[in-house]
Design a protein that fits this description.
heterodimer; A: mainly alpha; Serine Threonine Protein Phosphatase 5, Tetratricopeptide repeat; 9 helices; 2 strands; about 5% strand; B: alpha/beta; Glucose Oxidase, domain 1; binds adenosine-5'-diphosphate; binds magnesium ion
Chain lengths: ~220, ~850
């Protein structure tokens, strides 16, 4: 049988992605909260679950729209329901990504990479965080770097690379001392734990991988 | 009326705060809250959409002030701005004031019809009130409008200033710090020249009164502790504020007036870095060296927050530098930092910068430099020499804050005639852009003798003195006509007298003559007076330096730093590129030896194409060979290039940062693999190749004997060996006594290496900075070192010094050095 190679992201996949997000954040709620309990205020799991459950509720109204509109809807929902720092941050990510996807019902692999990079740029300027400050940025920067297409690439392969890179980035935050966000109030004591935002970023990418039509 | 929005994580907190504000303002104030998330906003968190709606609900023509609590409240508020139309964004101020008391103060002020700026300022000042109440030092500027009120309504006293030099900087500073604990608004007016009133909290304002001896001043105070404040001030002023009181009716003797004593104390020398005498006009490289961004900003709150942070950072940096100076040169010289710290706290200065941000929408750096220049100019226009000197301080702190703001420096202005350069510090990149023929000498106000910039200056043979800030204490380098410096003693002369100049000129000629003689004999092989051979080699950092090295008398290259192939590019160099560069050196050197050190980056030197985890202690981290082990492709490619380029040349390979035998085995295994691969591909290459290691980690020195069996040579990197053996960061000026490679501990390590190497008949080289230090070179040869590798400009000198000594004498010298306990004792041996 001929294997199908997936090299683009269409609206239906984006909708499935968001559904998977709602599920995965529900499932990993306690794990995220436990990480946030160690270095923050123990609400990251609840924040992400609340946000994406709200997104799920909006999907019916969004599913026939273009990707830009879906991202925008996701962004607004996250911004207004997550509550913690991760709300405006992920919200800004999707808001910036939306502008590159306006009017499009499908994005090529290159476009996905460029679009997400724009989202990350927005996120980073919102949070004023750079790599090494023990935030989700530590997972997202290497991940989106790895997402860039290489020769004979598929979106699935690229996502596998991105997820691996995000995990590695997440692991690298364990010894770090937080410089941004609530965890930075702890100073040296924030070392020794993974940043919760990094885990939620890994989950976000894994949910997208899961949402790809299987070949 | 200005509207007010309260953003909090907690709905309950926001509601309660709203109630507090309303209790003060009544219902007229446009006030809205945005707080909480989730169902009925009962959970903790913030919602950007709600914030944008709250803003719109209270926004009138006078705009909105937004107060927020912590963390995501700030992020969400900023996001909310993105959700508003361009036009709606224009008149919104984010105020960093404390939430509860700030809200009350802002509400009351807005209710009185004040504009946004004032509402925010009052909210910020609420922190100051609390600070005062708790008798802490305030960190926010006092609102300056209050001054007139205080002056009008308060109690007053009149005093005559007895100080010989009037109320100059030191007594003024004393007055400020002594009155700081009082809550009262205190102002001062100079009745003699009719200036003022100004706040007693601002040095620059007090300076502008130009209070001279016997001037009458009026001090006014309002507030609950006004009378005790005035009483205190009266005592202080009458007592001279720390200045010795002049005899009754006594005027200053003429001489003293002509040349006022300088505060703080002055010294005539810095730390010597590169020998040689330089005489000439100075160029102060500080003036235009910041590239101040000119853009306007929309949103003032974050700019103000940035400014406050930068000022705090600069203050901290100042305190650190002061502590370092106190440790190295003593408390008296560190005093200058005290004056600067005071200038940095001047509320007038900070208020002025904030007003530029608010009123003119200047970005932080622009607002700061404008305010700073304005006040510096004000000082400089004054009669009093003390105050004029404070203008230099003011400019200096201006630069420090710009630095803290991360403002870029412009590349050094190209020189058009020979100068002595004076600068706070040089980045190695700045030095690289200097045109050598126009640089007579360098004086760094900060800097450290072992910093990279110093190493470079030494290598360039530019007479240099560092840590010379105190030499200029109280004087702007721009005001000096002729500068002179002696790079071997660190002494600096400002406008030296004619006799001194003549003497310096004579010594300069002598030195040049000696250099010329050295040069003449530089091509003879290196050896002692009695013919004991010591190979003198060059350290080079670029392919293009090979020829100059040979011309300077190098008998080969003892250290090729290969980083030039890797730095300042976006992708790793290819095997061919590397090969070509290495081969060109081989061609230049012909049969002379070349030691290629493999890549030493990581830690502080980053490559954009190699991802590294950030490190707390880069120098104790993944650098050099450790990085190569992580990036084996990069490493293998370099080794291939070396082996291939070395075909038919005298190349040897040197691995940096080897800690123990397992490092060495691992590096050699990769080399072996590369060789087998090349053989398999039938590509001609140099094999076997001589392989050695840098000895720079004490563990390697200790394990020298075991390592010696496995290598063909050792080369000791004295800079890192010293830094690691004495746990002293070589860039830290406070650690001077520990940074000298002549420390007996380092000498013992070197002796141990020489002995270990001798067991297997391996040569030992020194390739650190110390190899080019005359005394150190002799001691190293006395310890049994076979080769010295150094910057090419020192080769002639070291060869000629060596030729003046017998082996037996330097061996005795080394013996004595080993018996010393400190580097200082070792250095004293030759005096
Ligand atoms: N300024 C910032 N820039 C980037 N990421 C940040 C920043 N502040 C916080 N984060 C990320 O947000 C995560 C915390 O999210 P969350 O718990 O929802 O917010 P809060 O810290 O307000 O409770 C952190 O683990 C970190 O990854
Ligand atoms: Mg949290």
């Amino acid at each position: 049988m001929e294997t199908m190679t997936v090299n683009s992201l269409d609206s239906a996949t984006v909708v499935r992605w968001m559904q998977h997000c709602a599920e995965t954040y529900q499932q990993h709620k306690d794990e995220l909260t436990a990480l946030d309990a160690a270095i923050g205020d123990a609400d990251h799991g609840a924040n992400m679950a609340r946000g994406f459950t709200a997104v799920q509720g909006k999907l019916d109204g969004l599913k026939d729209k273009d990707i830009g509109a879906i991202f925008k809807g996701v962004a607004m929902t996250l911004i207004s329901t997550v509550g913690g720092a991760s709300g405006p941050l992920y919200g800004t990510f999707f808001l910036q990504a939306a502008s590159g996807a306006n009017g499009k019902t499908s994005l090529t692999q290159e476009e996905v990479a460029a679009d997400f990079a724009a989202g990350l740029k927005g996120l980073m300027s919102r949070g004023k965080a750079v790599v090494g400050e023990k935030t989700m940025v530590d997972a997202l920067v290497p991940a989106l770097d790895a997402l860039k297409p290489v020769a004979n690439d598929t979106l699935a392969a690229a996502l596998d690379r991105a997820i691996a890179a995000a995990r590695k980035g997440a692991d690298s935050t364990v010894p770090m001392v937080a410089k941004k966000g609530r965890a930075s109030y702890l100073g040296e004591r924030s070392a020794g734990h993974m940043d919760p935002g990094c885990l939620s970023s890994v989950l976000l990418l894994e949910a997208l991988k899961q949402a790809l039509p299987s070949g | 009326m200005v509207g007010l929005v309260l953003v909090s994580h907690s709905r309950a907190l926001a509601l309660a705060t709203q109630e507090l504000v309303r209790s003060m303002t009544g219902p007229a104030l446009p006030l809205a809250i945005a707080a909480g998330v989730g169902e009925e906003h009962r959970e903790l968190g913030t919602d950007a959409v709600e914030i944008s709606e709250a803003i719109l609900s209270v926004q009138g023509p006078e705009g909105v002030v937004v107060l927020m609590d912590m963390g995501s409240a700030v992020l969400s508020s900023e996001t909310a701005l993105d959700l508003l139309d361009e036009s709606a964004r224009a008149n919104i101020t984010f105020c960093p004031a404390p939430f509860v008391e700030g809200a009350v103060a802002a509400g009351v002020t807005a209710n009185l019809g004040a504009p946004r700026e004032e509402v925010c300022r009052e909210a910020l000042a609420s922190l100051q009130q609390k600070n005062h109440a708790l008798a802490e030092k305030s960190s926010t500027p006092a609102p300056s409008e209050a001054l007139q009120k205080a002056d009008a309504a308060g109690q007053t006293i009149r005093l005559t200033v007895p100080n010989l030099h009037g109320l100059h900087a030191r007594p003024a500073a004393r007055l400020i710090s002594e009155t700081r604990p009082f809550h009262a608004e205190i102002t001062v007016r100079n009745l003699t020249n009719q200036r003022g009133p100004v706040s007693v909290r601002s040095l620059s304002s007090l300076a502008s009164l130009e209070i001279l001896q016997d001037n009458e001043i009026e001090v006014a105070a309002t507030g609950d502790d006004a009378s005790s404040a005035l009483e205190k001030i009266s005592g202080l002023v009458k007592g001279g504020l720390g200045d010795p009181l002049p005899p009754r009716n006594g005027k200053a003797p003429a001489a003293a007036q002509a040349e006022p004593p300088v505060t703080p104390k002055q010294t005539d020398r810095g730390v010597p870095v590169a020998e040689g005498i330089a005489i000439g006009p100075g160029t102060h490289l500080e003036e235009a060296d910041f590239e101040i961004p000119q853009n306007k900003i929309e949103n003032d709150a974050p700019e103000i927050a940035r400014l406050q942070k930068a000022v705090a950072d600069a203050r901290e940096a100042l305190a650190t530098r002061q502590a370092q100076m106190r440790a190295t040169v003593g408390a008296a010289h560190a005093e200058i930092y005290e004056a600067q710290a005071l200038a940095l706290q001047d509320p007038e200065l900070i208020d002025r910068a904030i007003s530029f941000i608010r009123a003119d929408h200047d970005n932080t750096a622009l607002a700061w430099s404008r305010a700073n220049e304005e006040i510096a100019r004000r000082y400089e226009s004054l009669q009093d020499p003390y105050f004029r000197a404070r203008g230099a301080d003011m400019k200096d702190i201006g630069r420090q804050v710009l630095e803290a703001l991360g403002v870029k420096r412009a590349p050094a202005k190209p020189l058009s005639e020979p100068r002595i350069l004076v600068a706070p510090d040089f980045a190695p990149s700045q030095i690289a852009s200097l045109e050598r023929k126009f640089v007579l000498g360098v004086i760094l106000l900060d800097g450290g003798p072992t910093a990279h910039s110093s190493i470079l200056l030494r290598a360039l043979n530019i007479p240099t003195v560092v840590q010379a800030r105190e030499v200029f204490a109280g004087r702007s380098p721009d005001s000096v006509q002729t500068l002179a410096l002696d790079g071997s003693t660190g002494k600096v002369w400002l406008d030296p007298a004619a006799e001194v100049l003549a003497d310096l000129r004579a010594r300069q000629v002598d030195q040049r003559q000696r250099a010329a003689e050295d040069k003449e004999s530089c091509l003879q092989p290196g050896a002692t007076l009695d013919g004991h051979r010591v190979e003198i080699l060059a350290n080079i950092g670029h392919a293009s330096e090979a020829r100059e090295a040979l011309q300077a008398g190098a008998e080969g290259v003892g250290l090729l730093r290969t980083e030039f192939l890797f730095l300042e590019r976006d992708s790793a160099p290819t095997e061919e590129e590397q090969m070509e560069a290495l081969r060109s050196i081989g061609v230049e050197l012909k049969e002379k030896p070349l030691t290629v050190r493999t890549l030493d980056v990581g830690g502080d030197k980053k490559l954009p194409y190699v991802q590294l985890a950030p490190e707390e202690n880069p120098f104790l981290g993944v650098r050099a060979i450790r990085l190569c082990f992580q990036q084996e492709d990069l490493f293998a490619t370099q080794l291939r290039a070396i082996l291939r380029a070395g075909h038919q040349h005298e190349f040897q390979i040197m691995f940096p940062m080897i800690a123990d035998l397992s490092d060495l085995r691992r590096a050699k295994a990769v080399l072996e693999k590369v060789h087998l691969q090349l053989e398999h591909e039938k590509i001609p290459h140099l094999w076997p190749i001589k392989t050695g290691i840098m000895v720079e980690i004490p563990s390697a020195a200790i394990a020298a004997e075991a390592l010696a069996e496995q290598v063909d040579f050792f080369s000791i990197g004295t800079n890192d060996l010293t830094q690691y053996a004495l746990a002293a960061d070589r860039g830290n000026p406070a650690l001077l006594p520990y940074q000298d490679s002549l420390h007996p501990a380092v000498l013992h390590l070197i002796q141990h290496v020489v002995k270990g190497a001798a067991r297997f008949n391996r040569p030992v080289a020194i390739c650190g900075e110390a190899a080019s230090d005359e005394l150190a070179a002799l001691i190293f040869v006395g310890l049994g070192v076979h080769e010295l590798s150094m910057t090419r400009t020192k080769i002639a000198r070291i060869k000629s010094v060596l030729r003046q000594h017998k082996l037996g004498d330097v061996q005795q010298l080394a013996e004595k050095a080993l018996a010393c306990h400190t580097a200082g004792e070792v250095r004293a041996l030759l005096r």
